[in-house]
Amino acid sequence: MSEREIGISDLGDALEIVFSEYMDDVRKATERDVRAAAKLTADELKQTSPKKTGEYAAGWGVQVKRPHSGSTVAVVKNRKKPGLTHLLEKGHGGPAPAPAHPHIEPAAERGMAELARRMSV
Fold this sequence. Notes:
Number of strands: 2
Largest sheet: 2 strands, antiparallel
Number of helices: 4
Low-confidence stretches: none
Structural class: mainly alpha
Shape: rod-shaped
Strand content: 5-15%
Order of helices and strands: HHEEHH
């Protein structure tokens, strides 16, 4: 930031500019960190998901949204077989019961830990 003299009447405007620039930098850094943590989670799920045919494991991806100003949300989801996530993670009963294959919760926990690490000051 360059130094310059401002009058007391211009102090409010000068502070508004400084804070606006700072908030823009914070927003960009936060969005970058959220995207990176979500991508790490999706990549881990591609590696750790059950792979009977490989289609389910390969289906993991990230969707990033900005629901309102200053907010970034990343959703990690399975685009190819979304209906299988709960059944594989938790298992199921029925005529052909299947055991649980926990893979989503561990990846989500590591992704959240990575986001916390990236955003810590």
